[in-house]
Design goal:
151 residues, alpha/beta, Ribose 5-phosphate Isomerase B, Chain: A, five-stranded parallel sheet, 5 strands, 16% strand, globular
């Protein structure tokens, strides 16, 4: 699997561990933040990762900032991105299973071991083909398409 990551300066201390973990699992990692500094802006990373996923240059995206909230807001501005701000393993599973999320946003404040568990669950969970989840996701996609046409 090809995974694009964007991590602002808040996560620069754990980025290498995440990349190593993902590559050890056989994934190809596209690092969208090769050099972090305190002046970097999380929207730049979120937009870049979102575009890679939306353009099918990456299968999934992983974003991290201090809270994960800003990254999720910014990423969701990219058409066809379904970014979920996730705080625990259960939310990681449901984000994929029910919401078909294609980008994950996490807080850098979590323990590294918990971050890796959340990432693994997100990557390895599939979207549920239950009619109710398909119907709800299609409604969101239709609304997004209508809004993009108007603007």
């Amino acid at each position: 699997m090809k995974i694009a990551i964007g991590i602002d300066h808040n996560g620069s201390n754990i980025k290498a561990k995440i990349i190593t973990h993902l590559e050890k699992e056989g994934n190809i990692v596209i690092d969208n933040c090769p050099a972090n500094n305190p002046l970097d802006d999380y929207p730049d990373f979120a937009f870049n990762v979102g575009k890679l996923v939306a353009n099918k240059e990456a299968d999934l995206g992983i974003l991290m900032c201090g809270t994960g909230i800003g990254m999720s807001i910014a990423a969701n501005k990219v058409k066809n991105i379904r970014c979920a701000h996730v705080s625990n393993e259960n939310e990681a599973s449901l984000a994929k299973k029910h919401n078909n999320a294609n980008v994950l946003a996490i807080s850098t404040k979590n323990e590294t071991s918990e971050i890796l568990k959340i990432i693994d669950i997100f990557i390895n969970t599939n979207f549920s083909e239950e009619e109710r989840h398909i119907r709800r996701n299609n409604k969101i996609a239709k609304y997004e398409e209508q809004q993009c046409i108007k603007h």
